[in-house]
Amino acid sequence: MSVEAAGRAAGTGEPEGGGACLCGRCPHGARTGHRRAVAAFIALRDDFAAGRGLPAGLAHSAGAARQWVSDELALSARTLAERSTAEGVTWLAAVRRRTLPTVWAAVAALLLGQALTAVGAGWTAARTAGLIAAVALALALTAAARWHAAHGGVLAPLLGEDGRLSTSRAVAAGWVAAVLYAVVTAAVQLASAGPGARRRLLAGPALPSSGPLLAALFVGCAVAVCAHALVAVRVRAGRLQKIPAERPRAVDLLADDAGRGSFPDVQYVLVNAAVVGYALVCLARRPGQLPHLPWGLVVLVLLSGATYLAGKAVAGGRPVILSVVRSRELGDLAAPIRTGDDIEIRGTGFVPPGAGTPHRLARTVVRIGAVHVPVPLVPVPGGFANPADDVLTVPVPVDVEPGRVEVRVVTAAGVATDGYPIDVQE
């Protein structure tokens, strides 16, 4: 299959080859269409990187050829982005059907575990209460999943504004689920207990015994709220660059926006998972009482949350231009910057985390004076040489007035650098 045929099939959704569905409306069609669009784009990029596919009329002008290649890649990247968006929408709609069986499988696993442990010891009211509590929570999750079917079902409350799984929200949801399970279990036992057992069960949720558990729940929820507010304030102030994700992934819980492992996220998830597990073990040993956590574990959760928020506070930053120089080919003489020359902008933060996809790279713009210059995509085998996070190369258009002008970089996240002055000669 040629690159042109793959591009047409991915762009129109018409069956190609064996008649595979590419409608983009069903999960299989969206997945197949996206896969073929990716293959078509990679083939086109690698052809241009190897010098193939250039029109003969552009062979005499390196600048014109580079701009033509960049425009063709940007057009193909737009088709790829449309296919990626379609796959993300259908994936979110289908994830509800995948997560609900998992929820009810967990209830079945709990029933099986209780049945196996009841052999010899006998079935108790506590086991019935735990099973009823699990079924009640599963029914609540099923209702929520149906209500938010188009937004990921059960995962909808865990998604951040950028479309990624939120670590803080997932941890807070884990604490809420564990505490609700303990409360419902105690309530079911209270409803069926006699007068003597009822007084004992009512003493279980007393503040002296349940205080640490409630404090841990408060810390988890407070960290989620503070993390959301911190990120929102930094994004609005331009101190943090956020790029929406194509779809949520499990790795989001332990990684940053670029998919790299994040220590604040990893330690926060592991610490809270360990403490929640401790609470559930305490609940299994004494089903009639809320789990009693040592205050030392609450302090551990608090320190972990503080570390997580500190990581959020220092992550990212504004893009910065450190220097602008004339791009010089081997053999060229030293000269000032003139219109038509290429300039090399050196700095940091030009490609925000998560903006490495082709259609987002194509959105990077350099403002030279009053002229906005799209940063050309320069393909190399396996990726792009331009733009990069630390260096951009753009031509100085003839529309730039000679004299002192300011250079600004506008990233794919919409954040602009401070102006950097340069002198343009006639």
Question: What does this entry look like structurally?
Answer:
The chain is α+β, with helices and mostly antiparallel strands and 426 residues long. It has ten helices and ten strands. It has helices at residues 3-12, 27-49, 62-117, 125-147, 167-192, 195-203, 207-236, 263-285, 295-314, 358-361, and strands at 320-326, 337-338, 342-348, 365-368, 371-374, 378-380, 383-386, 391-395, 403-410, 420-425. A hairpin with a 2-residue loop joins strand 4 and strand 5 (371-374). The radius of gyration is 29 Å and the shape is elongated. The two termini are 49 Å apart.
Strand content: 5-15%
The largest β sheet comes out as: 5 strands, mixed
Secondary-structure element series: HHHHHHHHHEEEHEEEEEEE
**Strands across the major sheet, in which order?**
2-10-9-4-5
Our Rg estimate from Cα atoms comes to 29 Å
Number of helices: 10
The count of β-strands is 10
Backbone structural class: alpha+beta
SSE layout and pairing:
Elements: H1 3-12, H2 27-49, H3 62-117, H4 125-147, H5 167-192, H6 195-203, H7 207-236, H8 263-285, H9 295-314, E1 320-326, E2 337-338, E3 342-348, H10 358-361, E4 365-368, E5 371-374, E6 378-380, E7 383-386, E8 391-395, E9 403-410, E10 420-425
